[in-house]
Design a protein that fits this description.
single chain; 463 residues; mainly alpha; two-stranded antiparallel sheet; globular; binds tryptophan
Length: 463
């Protein structure tokens, strides 16, 4: 995005602003990672902690990023530099840039899977698999795809190139218009699928798993996973939303926007859970199957939901994967943009050159992540292959550290005057909730993140 303040364009409408920000938030994090994490971490108990993390940690942090972004009116790496000359604070932006690049490297692999599923749906492959009558047909299909050394890498490549071209051209005009149509459509399809999944054989078990908390399953690991997932899904804790906020208009209500984006994002995640878990319990998939969970369960959802109307099922599945790709693309763009803006502005490169460097490096590292599902699957550390390590390190180490630093920065070091100005839009809004937001950012958020982080990593296990 353009850094020259004169040329900056604001989002044209409030709805567009909320939906574009929600477009960055809603992505594979909601539709793929949320059910995977919920499945691995015990269902309902995870959901409760997740929602608590969104409210108590996610929303204050999102507001903090909005404050920094709209005030600094520039990209992430620059924003923290502009607002402070402390050594550590100047690094927050850079750390966010690195985290964005790191997440992108494996995010793009899953995006490639989504693209492959779109092509397969379009070619009617899933209908044929359904007719084969083999209950494990979808699992075989997924496994043979991800273990192939070439195809997943090719799809990931296509995906990053799509993002590359959008970014080279600048994202401002497209992104708002795009989100306004895509988000409501995605919502409608998810709602239809969620209703359909209530009629499947595993509906009762699936919903019980998702909504009935078994509190005995809560450990510090679960809480760390839920916190990381909340940050991941809301696109916070690495400064990404800062860039979006720099496009907000002067009269946009920052807290209100954070709450709206948080609600949309959480509803999409829960809808995805309502769609996936009944399907998982209708087949012999195990809920803790990991990254493959959603990709094996989804074609089943379509098959079961539309078994009496296969043609309608075909169209809905094609449309669904299409929207999934669009939702993923908006998130990929928001991740791609952060390192690109940093390179082009801090190293005075042309946008094309900066984008190319990011794209090529992501392709190289992304291919290694992709191969870790197949030929490199024996290369593991602590039982995790490279792909899982990227997911774990970014979600459960980098994002908590980023969130911790952002909360400390805004809570302790950013001038009160700036916070006041931003939250009240220069005294045109009542300063409602401002004190509690500052208190949360100052004490609760950093202490909670630190405690959850250290205990989740087992630092207190010896006690
Ligand atoms: N929130 C996105 C998702 O749910 C992923 C994402 C985009 C992200 N930008 C981010 C995650 C910044 C963390 C930080 O798919």
């Amino acid at each position: 995005m353009n850094n020259s303040n004169k040329a900056r364009v604001d989002f044209a409408s409030k709805v567009g602003m909320v939906l574009a920000t929600a477009g960055s938030a809603v992505g594979l994090g909601n539709i793929w990672r949320f059910p995977v994490m919920t499945g691995q971490s015990g269902g309902g108990a995870f959901l409760i902690i997740y929602i608590l993390c969104v409210i108590a940690l996610g929303l204050p942090l999102m507001t903090a990023e909005f404050i920094v972004g709209r005030h600094a009116h520039t990209n992430t790496a620059q924003a923290y530099k502009k607002l402070s000359n402390g050594w550590l604070w100047r690094k927050i932006g850079k750390f966010g840039v690195f985290t964005g690049w790191f997440i992108l490297c494996y995010y793009i692999v899953v995006s490639g899977w989504a693209l492959d599923y779109f092509v397969d749906a379009l070619l009617g492959k899933f209908s044929r698999l359904a007719q084969s009558g083999d209950p494990d047909a979808y699992a075989h299909h997924f496994q043979s795809f991800v273990q192939n050394p070439w195809m997943p890498a090719v799809y990931a490549l296509v995906f990053i190139l799509m993002s590359h071209f959008v970014i080279v051209k600048g994202v401002k005009k497209g992104i708002e218009r795009f989100s306004k149509i895509m988000m409501p459509l995605l919502f409608i399809i998810l709602a239809v699928l969620a209703v359909c999944s209530l009629f499947t054989a595993g509906a009762k078990e699936g919903l019980t798993f998702l909504f009935r908390p078994d509190l005995s399953k809560i450990t510090f690991k679960t809480i760390l996973a839920a916190m990381g997932q909340a940050f991941y899904s809301l696109s916070i804790a690495m400064g990404c939303l800062c860039t979006f906020a720099s496009y907000f208009s002067k009269d946009a209500n920052l807290v209100g926007t954070a709450v709206k984006v948080g609600i949309i994002d959480t509803i999409v995640a829960i809808m995805s859970g309502i769609i996936i878990f009944p399907a998982v319990f209708s087949t012999n998939l195990s809920v803790d199957a990991g990254p493959s969970l959603v990709f094996i369960a989804l074609p089943n959802v379509f098959h079961q939901a539309f078994s009496s109307m296969p043609l309608l099922g075909y169209f809905v599945s094609v449309l669904f994967y299409f929207l999934l790709i669009l939702a993923t693309l908006t998130s990929v763009i928001s991740l791609h943009e952060v390192p690109t803006a940093y390179l082009s502005e801090d190293f005075h490169m042309s946008r094309t050159r900066a984008t190319t460097i990011v794209t090529v490096s992501v392709i190289v590292v992304g291919s290694i992540c992709s191969l870790s599902m197949g030929p490199l699957k024996d290369l593991t550390l602590g039982g995790k292959n490279i792909f899982d390590l990227f997911d774990f390190v970014s979600g459960q180490i980098f994002l908590p550290i980023g969130g911790f630093l952002i909360a400390l920065f805004v809570g302790w070091f950013l001038q009160r005057r700036i916070i006041y100005q931003q939250l009240t839009n220069c005294s045109t809004l009542p300063p409602r909730g401002m004190r509690s937001i500052i208190l949360l950012l100052k004490y609760f958020v950093p202490v909670a993140i630190m405690f959850i982080f250290l205990s989740g990593l087992g630092v207190f296990d010896w006690l």
